[in-house]
Every structure is written in C-alpha cells, then in structure tokens.
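Here is the promised in-class demo. Please do not try to memorize the tokens; focus on the logic of going from shape to residues.
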C-alpha cells in the first residue's frame, strides 16, 4: 500500500514540521505533498526547508501563487499525487503511530474504497482552548458510535439511522483509493471556504464503499490554537448560518444530479431551506417560516431547527 499524504498549508509555520514528520514515520507513505496557500507567516520558508531535508516531501503552490483556500489546495494535491491511496492531514494536526493500522488490513478487500477512523484533540494555546470550549465544545474524540460501512455511513452522517451514528469523522482520519475519487469525479467544492471537507465526506459516503476502522481511540490529533478558523465561528450567528446555508446548498445541488435515497434528498433540502430561512429578517422571516411549515412540517425536525428563531 503506497499513500500520498496531502497537507494544505496556510499560516502554520509553528506546526507544519510536526505534521510532516508524523506522516514520514510510515513506510507506506510514499510522498507528503505540501500545498502552500500564500501564508502570511513564514510557512513557505519552512515548507521549502522540509522539501530539501526529506526526499519524500514535495512542495507546490497554486499557479498564480495566490490564496485559494483549503478545498482548492487539496484538489491540487490530489492532482499532483502519484500513489494509489490518498490521506489528508491539516498542517496544525499530526498522525499517531496507529494511523494506518486498520487500512493495512481492510484495504486487502478490493470492495473497500475508503477507511475512516477516530481522531483526538490537543489544545495548543489557552486562547484556542477558550474559543473551542465556548464556540464548539465537541467531544475530545471525534468518532462514530458503532462500526458501519457502505450506505449506512451515508445515512448515518445525515442522521437517518435508527441508532445515533455519532459525531463526525474528519479528513485527518480518512484514507481513500485515488481511483474511487477519479471514478466518481469527486473533488472538493472550491466555492466553500469552510465545510468543504464535510461536503466531500458526505458525497464520498454515497458514491464509495467506506468502512470504519479504529473508532475507539485516536489515530491522529487535531491541534486547537488561537488561529483555528473554525473556533472563531459562533453558532447561530448570521455568519455561521450563512456558511451552513452554503454548505447545505452545495449538497442540495449535488443531490439533484445524483440518484440518492428520496428521504436523504428530502433531508438535505430541508436543511438547506432551514438555513435559508435563518438568513431572512423581520416579518418576511415569519411569513416564509409559516409557509415552509405548511408545505412540510418536517422542517421543524431538522438538526438546526432553532437557528432561524435565535436572532
């Protein structure tokens, strides 16, 4: 098994060396691909040093050397990759020694196109911890509640399984066959500056046969610090709702072009509609909400059903 590890780099001069070296510890990692995204700090210099120090580290920038976001950077990394398997790592996170233990076994089955695992959390700064606990407050372990594979993963991510599937798994804990991405023409939505990872994971779970690996202990660690973009987003604010609206609209547009379960398609539409309603103001919001409830009362059962009532 030969793996390309793709690391988008933005404003991560303090952390990227640890991320790279955590990936190089594995014999299966054929290359570590750094995509430097016009960082305002000295990350580019650090990346150049790493590429000179390690033969397996390859450094790229966007053709215009501009800033294009994590989704575009990961797409460029996939394009530049040469291995049969793709793994992702954020520049401020790192792999643990058990990162590919499950993959070594599960990918012997040619039906398995992707394996996902659990990741843990480490607070790198006090301010990062404060922001995280007040705005996000996830569990230490990002994982799922039970082993799953195939379409059950897709339904679980949308909250449509009889048992609660769990939190979410992240890109740091996902390994996928490059052929599965190519066959299904799957790329990150470059129009999404946040949530492009969740967007791809849900689409991947529908098109590909994913299987859970190690879900009871972390295989990677996410670093929480002052500059984490996600910790700056406070739930149910207009900014938060706008980003959620863009995310669900991306899934909705995709669902219209693909043959997916009707209940899943309806769920995606209702989530999109709920966040669209959250962005309305004044009497127009009440009128639109009433019309939406009359049309389909299930909108009141969406995961974010209270977002449009909190402003």
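The designed amino acids, position by position:
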């Amino acid at each position: 098994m030969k793996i390309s590890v793709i690391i988008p780099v933005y404003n991560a001069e303090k952390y990227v060396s640890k991320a790279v070296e955590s990936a190089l510890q594995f014999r299966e990692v054929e290359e570590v691909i750094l995509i430097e995204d016009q960082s305002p700090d000295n990350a580019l210099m650090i990346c150049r040093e790493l590429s000179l120090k390690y033969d397996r580290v390859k450094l790229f920038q966007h053709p215009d050397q501009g800033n294009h976001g994590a989704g575009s950077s990961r797409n460029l990394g996939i394009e530049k990759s040469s291995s049969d398997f793709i793994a992702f790592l954020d520049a401020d996170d790192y792999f643990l020694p058990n990162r590919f233990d499950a993959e070594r076994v599960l990918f012997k089955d040619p039906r398995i196109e992707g394996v996902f695992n659990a990741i843990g959390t480490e607070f790198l700064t006090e301010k990062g911890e404060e922001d995280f606990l007040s705005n996000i407050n996830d569990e230490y372990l990002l994982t799922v509640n039970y082993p799953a594979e195939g379409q059950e993963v897709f339904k679980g991510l949308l909250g449509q399984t009889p048992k609660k599937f769990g939190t979410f798994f992240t890109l740091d804990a996902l390994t996928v066959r490059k052929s599965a991405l190519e066959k299904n023409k799957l790329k990150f939505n470059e129009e999404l500056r946040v949530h492009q990872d969740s967007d791809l994971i849900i689409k991947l779970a529908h098109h590909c046969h994913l299987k859970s690996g190690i879900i009871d202990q972390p295989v990677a660690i996410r670093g929480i610090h002052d500059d984490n973009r996600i910790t700056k987003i406070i739930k149910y604010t207009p900014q938060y709702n706008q980003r959620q609206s863009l995310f669900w609209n991306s899934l909705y547009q995709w669902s219209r072009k693909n043959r997916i379960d009707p209940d899943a398609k309806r769920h995606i539409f209702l989530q999109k509609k709920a966040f669209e309603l959250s962005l309305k103001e004044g009497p127009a919001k009440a009128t639109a909400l009433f019309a939406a409830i009359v049309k389909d009362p299930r909108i009141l059962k969406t995961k974010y059903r209270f977002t449009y009532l909190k402003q």
